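Q: Structure for this?
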Amino acid sequence: MPATSSPVRFDPARGLAVLRTPNSVYVIRVGSDGSPRHVYWGAALDTDDLAALPAAHSPADSSFEADADPDELAPQSGARFGPAGLQVRYADGTRGAQWTFTGHDIEGGKLLLRLTDRRYPLAAELVYRVRPDSDVIERWVELTHTGGDDSGPITVDRLDSASWTLPTLPDYRLTHLVGGWNSEFQLRRDRLPVAETVLTSRRGLTSHHANPWLALDDGTATEERGEVWTTALAWSGSWRVTVHRDPVGRTTWTGGFGHDGLSWTLAPGETLRTPVFAGLYTPGGFGAASRAWHTYVRGGVLPDPDRDRPVVYNSWEATGFDVDHDGQLRLAELAAGLGAELFVLDDGWFGARTSDRAGLGDWTPRPSAFPDGLRPLADEVHRLGMAFGLWVEPEMVNRDSDLYRAHPDWVVHAPSREATEQRNQLMLNFARPEVEAWAHHTLDRLVRENDVDWLKWDANRVVTEAGWPGQRDPDRLWIDHTRAVYRVMDRLRADHPRLRIEACAGGGGRVDLGILARTDQAWTSDNTDPVDRITIQHGFSQLFPAQTMATWVTDSPNVTTGRTTPLRFRFHVAAAGALGLGGDLTHWSEEELDQAAALVARYKEIRPLVQRGHQHRLSGPGGVTAVHYISEDSTEHAVLAWRPTTRFGHHSPALALPALDPTARYLDPDEGTTYSGAVLTRLGIDLALPDGDYASSLIRLRRVG
Ligand code: GLA
């Protein structure tokens, strides 16, 4: 193997490919049957030791067993009986692929392995990309029908982006995110059963219910310690990840876009490219895994990671559908007085949209609410020193709308089925080029005519009766709709360089690495109750950095839970992300407005650390939850701590800050106290939580020596 510092190497004599990241090595061997097989993924190993690794051997070797070497993407052929990531059918009914390895390419950190079927006109490229200074390995697949016009189509029943394999561990634990509307991103850690475990969304959106992220460990990893393997799919439509722990103790998982039962037709000459499935290994526990993901999202996913996310004011919880120029302007004035930097006019400004029953699709301001259109409000908002944002839900339509009356065929529907309405709306089929063109034109005009700086792009229902009349390959809408959404967002950003986009789907129903490649942040949840938010934000932070996590301080009692909480507690919980305001400020007392202005100013002091620093979760939900943010140069620190309830006789102990430097000293600039790093890392800091429920604190520290 040539000695080179390249992160990617391929030794044709041994058929061995080695990918190196700062803390890990990933090894593939092209097997004698032409299939790329998995050799190793984990802590760094010496190259010679790797080359000497023996081929895998099943302890249960017999004529009933599968091949011992796991595939990098398993086809349905040969002695393979686990979930196949590549499932194809040819015109004669034959399934699967028997590969010939036809070569490789290395370009910087990218490795491409080329495969062609020995008999059928099918070619695949397995692509791996190592990003500089990151432990993340990005993987995807391109599948091509290489036949001429006279060869029949190839049916693709499943095309995953990658299969991943763990070294053999004594036990396996699966960490993943589950939930629902208003309760997204609930973290679960479950012992992995000896079975196939499927994480999936069949909804055409990433979903509130599961997220295409997971982590695996041997059951002993903690926040600070232990080996963790974790993957995330960059896709915002339906998806599926199948984790297979087999009875002889091996665990693999395979995943990609689409869900069970869908199939796509590959015509001669056509290529299907999968989304990126990214993975990383860390020896540093779940905390290090999250920080590695955050660095990757900032360096390799987000379009504009270094720009501070503005303090937003959003009018939804204040005014609902009852919006007009004067009312919104009043809120904008109050918000500007509190230090808001962006005013977002939410739902209800267009067409006949005075409730969720009508108007969706008719994107012109309602004259009774905005007699001179939106421009006067946008100008006033700009005059107040804030950016102007607008809520849109371009993929959706109410039946009671001019758009639906003009184009009933534009909705996703099977003509022989009754269309299920959700929130009184249907979904437009963006896979139709004319619908995509209409959406782009409509949004482009809105942004241009109204000097819009920010779009909150919402999606409040999922796909049902997924028909596409007249389409030869109707299942394509599951892929092409999402791709069209991406394209419209990408074009808008390219044509309006100042424009920022917030992802939303009834809260956190579409948050993933795919949507974040063209948006700046995501509306985390419609649930703005600060107690519920602690758990939601804890789950969200596993993969996504704080700058992408939109948080609002809203009214008390909370509109969702009815819970009454102090303003300070609400602010301190929201300060853990991209802070915003969402209450009815016209009902806030002078005292509350003053307190809010001071808390916004305080947030802006720590914003660079929260939004661009490193995040250490000190303790999870339950009892006292705390997060420590550290500036990139490690000098500035902020600790946020929340204790929703208290019990008699239980004092909150001092909180250790293990990420500090024990040899340094730290100044609390607010109290004027200096601490030794050794004391703070071992004994911890007194959080000075006030007595009673809903206690919170924000402590700043500065390294002074
Ligand atoms: C969704 C969003 C909310 C709000 C409403 C408007 O539920 O998540 O923030 O924009 O739609 O209808």
